[in-house]
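step=predict obj=Leucine carboxyl methyltransferase 1 n=319
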Amino acid sequence: MDKHNLDGDEAVRSTNDDASHCKRFAVQLGYWTDPYLPLLVRSTERKTPEINRGYFARVIGITNIIEKFIKAMEGNCQIVNFGAGFDTLYWKLLDAGLSVKKFVEIDFANVTSRKCHYIRNNDKLIRGLHSDDEEIRYSTSELHSGVYHLAAADLRKLSEVESKLAECSMEYNVPTLFLFECVLVYMPIQFSHALLQLIADKFSTTFCINYEQVNMTDRFGDVMLSNLRSRGCSLAGVEACASLKSQEDRFILNGWDGARALEMNQVYHSLISPVEIQRIEKIEFLDEKELLDQLFHHYCICVAWKDSLDLKLNLLTID
């Protein structure tokens, strides 16, 4: 791999730290509760109210859909979080009494090695991994317990992904939710298409949540792309982010039964309770609502499903 690609990979990896610091600051202000994030992310920096509300909508919107899936499956399901970074979803679901058969996180090795280190050195995080019949296995960049698995792979290399899923003892006939948060957009389109096709081929019943940019062909989208390029971070898969339809189409083209995408302004007002919105809007004064509307217009959640067991997964879409 040439130096340009290596530099680009490093810039993509750094987005984990950026997102983690944003979430940490929003949690610190009280947008949502996460007692585990400060154990993985020690430092924070001030963010604008628009950024904080954006992350609130992202975290709460995605969490609501995941909880709906687990309840519908009555816990007989698996979750795979691709490009998970320092996400704490596993521990938060445990606290909510929502257990699953298997929870797998996959990311670059230099991200998983740091997360592995933090988990190993914190009793509160380790407690959630213990099961009665299996010991926790560690390596420099991986951690495997009975339910939770943290594995290292390059998502552009399907052989690595397949190998890691096998090592985590995934059951291909069990309903499985796949989560992507600003992951596919950093991969050239042929790689993201191949990964989505692999999932559709190997898993008989699957549900996907993808959060990333949308409506990127206008002036605001151009500015977003320019800002990212100035940090050495190009959106290699941005062509799938042209519209809600292009977001949906890439799933249909790669073996999925159906898909539905909603801009984040729709998610904010339809998937989050009015009481919660009222509460968080009192945390910080928003000087310019137009900027938040623009941000919400340029991010979306797309859900997709492949429902061989006829579990009515299409009914779990965003209302």
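step=describe
The first helix runs from residue 3 to 29.
step=end
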